[in-house]
Amino acid sequence: MFIITKIEDQIRVLPQDLTKTPVDAVTAVIEQRFIDKVIPNLGLVVTIYDVLQIEGGFVYPNDGAAFFKVQFRVVVFRPFIGEILVGKLKSCSREGLRVSLDFFEDVLIPEHALQDPSFYDDSERLWVWKFDGNDMYMDLKEPIRFRVQSIKFSAQPTPLQLENATGDDKLIGTAAKPFSPMIIMGDINGDGLGLTTWWLG
Amino acid sequence: MKLLEVNAGTICNSELLHVLTERGADGSGKATIVERMAYQYISSQPVQPLTPKQLQEFFDVLQPYNLSRGELLQLANLAPRSPVEVHLVVADCDVRLGDEGVEAILAAVAERVAKEEGPEEEAVVAMS
């Protein structure tokens, strides 16, 4: 689920933080800049693993801050295709399921990737898997096991795109479905997949 | 920003738990929201947090079955309790492992990785 990535970056430490040790000052800046951010085509940075090398500390003209060239490693959430993960069912809609992994909420299971045959129950607003004559309801907040099909990264919309976007555009998103830089498409069509309670014992 | 090494290694959930605890994600220090959520997610799985030594022992026990790194990682992360879960993780399970292999994996998991099972007796893993 998680990989370690080595990054090198110019880290700017503000003058007021120069009383801290370089490692602490640099870690604080890295925290702000990287943690909880998605690196395009890589994944979501979850935490700092360690700081390998700090060089520099130069102060450039007109800027009182010190610049360090830092090599450090971060833990990135990046499941591989075909990996099996367990999350909690967050919401159901006609288009499919939305699964949450506490720290990552953008896992979508489209309706064609559900167990065969599954139907959307309008009254309960839940998906149901009709197995052997039994109605297996996919209740919310249940742990659900899924397989990663693909990961989609979208670039942040530029101001020009925002201006030209029509009302229904997926680009900018709405309050109900905000823009997600990283979306994981999953499937639960297979033995052992779906709600974990279906396959117990 | 330069990505020097995009994939410098995989880290399994137990190892990440150690890292997050050091960063104070368990409440003992100031950690960001995503770190605390990741800690919460890993702790809520039915998997026991393992020390690096225990993790290495678990992988050594499974060594004769020639599982790939990805499969070992998933076994350590998911702690399967039933054969169907092992089939999900291991490709070509019938051909490579057969029933005894699956049983052996489940035994190793139950003994070392799974949580809330109580102390199991030292089970001798049957190597076929």
Topology of helices and strands:
The complex is a heterodimer of chains A (about 200) and B (about 130).
Chain A: E1 2-13, H1 22-34, E2 38-39, E3 43-59, E4 66-77, E5 84-93, E6 96-101, E7 104-110, E8 118-121, E9 126-131, E10 134-137, E11 143-153, H2 159-164, E12 182-187, E13 194-195
Parallel strand pairs in A: 7-12
Antiparallel strand pairs in A: 1-4, 2-3, 3-4, 5-6, 5-11, 6-7, 8-9, 9-10, 11-12, 11-13
Chain B: E1 2-5, E2 10-11, H1 13-22, H2 33-43, H3 52-61, H4 69-78, H5 83-89, H6 93-96, H7 98-112
Helix pairs in contact in B: 1-2
Average predicted local confidence, pLDDT of chain B: 81
If helices are DSSP runs of H or I spanning 4 or more residues, what is the number of helices of chain A?
2
**Overall pLDDT metric of chain A:** 87
Whole-angstrom Rg of chain B: 16 Å
What pattern of helices and strands is seen along the backbone of chain B?
A: EEHHHHHHH
Describe the strand arrangement of the main beta sheet of chain A, using strand numbers: 5-6-7-12-11
How many beta-strand runs of chain A? 13
Helical fraction of chain A: under 10%
Work out the radius of gyration of chain A: 22 Å
Helix fraction of chain B by DSSP (H/I, runs of at least 4): 40-55%
Show unreliable segments of chain B: 117-128
Binned strand content of chain A: over 45%
SSE order of chain A, one letter for each helix or strand: EHEEEEEEEEEEHEE
* Strand content range of chain B: under 5%
Largest sheet of chain B: none
* Pair of chains with the largest interface and how many residues each contributes: A-B, 40 and 41 residues
Terminal Cα span of chain B = 51 Å
| Overall body shape of chain A | elongated
Count of β-strands of chain B:
2
